[in-house]
Amino acid sequence: MACTCSHEPAPQKPNSKFRTALWIALIINLTLFFVELVGGAYAHSSALWADSLDFFGDAVNYGISLAVLGASLYWRATVALIKGLTMALFGFVVIGKSAYAYMQGIPPEAMTMGAIGILALIANVIAAVILYAFRDGDANMRSVWLCSRNDAIGNVAVIFAAVGVFGTGSLLPDIIVAVIMATLGLTGGYQVIKKALQERRENKPILNT
């Protein structure tokens, strides 16, 4: 029994510019994951903790994307589907963590939140600009762009949360931002899953005997 592809063209040669952009994004996300993990624990911030998990998930996703460059569109879409599910799962995890933090009632340390938020924003804007050119590619490329875009939006929200915590002394701004980030994960994951499923249907391999 032999396996042949249906109407899909032969896999294209991996885009060297996209590969370089992925490596840059991978390094940025791994670095910020450790920074926000430590900073979030120190500041008791749900938003920073949630953002650190997002950075880690994105770093893993970028690594997977690098691994499948040059593969057929069907398999790239399969990997994108897994990444979309991961993004959605992240959203549900953050919602659960936010509910737990609310019950604990400990306000975060605003200055640490703000400083790390600004640092993360600068790094993510750089990554988003680099990946912007690939936003209209296949599901795999689009998922990479959405991850970077969501991170930059999340960093802006963390900065606003730090200002809110500093001005009110309440943990609510931190919780609100965490929920916003969870929503970004859910909606972004839905978009990636939808496109990935479509590409899998359109490029499914056919088994010929």
From TrEMBL:
GO terms for molecular function: zinc ion transmembrane transporter activity. Pfam families: Cation_efflux. Its main location: membrane. It is a multi-pass membrane protein. The chain crosses the membrane at residues 21-43, 55-75, 87-104, 110-132, 152-169, 175-193. Residues 22-198 form the Cation efflux protein transmembrane domain. It is found in: Membrane. It comes from the Bacteria. InterPro entries: Cation_efflux_TM (IPR058533), Cation_efflux_TMD_sf (IPR027469), CDF/SLC30A (IPR050681). The keyword Nuclease does not apply. One of its GO terms (cellular component) is plasma membrane. SUPFAM superfamilies: Cation efflux protein transmembrane domain-like. Gene3D superfamilies: Cation efflux protein transmembrane domain. This is Cation transporter.
